[in-house]
Amino acid sequence: MSHVAHSVVDLHEQASRQPRLLTTEHLDDEVRERARATWRGRMVSEHTSAHVFGTLLGQGVRAGLSSDRLDPIAKAIDQELSHGLLCARVVVALGGEARGEMDGPMPMVPTHDDVAPLEGLVRNLISISCVFETLAVSLVSCEREQVRVDELKDVFSRILGDEVEHARLGWALLDSLPRFDAAQQSRLGAYLVDVFDHVLDHFGPLPHAPTASDEALRWGASDGPGNWDLVLDTMHTAILPCLEKHDLPARAAWRAAATGARLHA
Ligand SMILES: [Fe+2]
Ligand SMILES: [Fe+2]
Predict the structure, then answer these.
(1) List of domains in the chain
(2) Ligand 2 centre from 232 Cα, in Å?
(3) Nearest bound ligand to CA 133?
């Protein structure tokens, strides 16, 4: 499948038809703009995740997954769409346009035709679910703690409950598989370097992104350097050790990716 040509996510009309999520009349302009930009970014990435899980569902069918393993993937598509719409409603409540552009086209989910369908699916589940969704759980948990507006806390809680499921579905599939043989471990280990390159590419700008004021954090703006520290902490204390438990050389792959990116990560 070639990539989706359009890289614009436009949920403005749909979000504007929904009841207003919160009132923001007395908000300082700078805080409002900062919060709006963060929520617009969240809207785009949540909506894009629906596309990613949609592709994963097709791969799961092709790999012969049972329907009880496919169901949570199918459910994730719907959940990511509703996360995107929730974030769009926050943008509208903040007086913004719920339209966002991505840096490029919708992300491609690789088909991995060089290996058997199940191994190809495992590669994508490690990347999407075990790594990126686990990072999302950490980031959303932290942002939920920082936010001070009840309606926004509620939005984060609804999103967080689903992100936990999205992370679990990948870890549960890994737990259910027979141990990887040496050749599989080696191929998956090599692929992990690509996954971690993507992590560093995606989150690498965070340490240089502006910090958020306490007031902006209260409205759900994200704090670049703080989030970067959290990404590193989650990688080192949760994701790498869990992948190593499945006999995957995750720490070596992380070092290789960090060295390639010339980052002390
Ligand atoms: Fe989500
Ligand atoms: Fe998710």
Answers:
(1) 8-259 (1.20.1260.10)
(2) 19
(3) 2
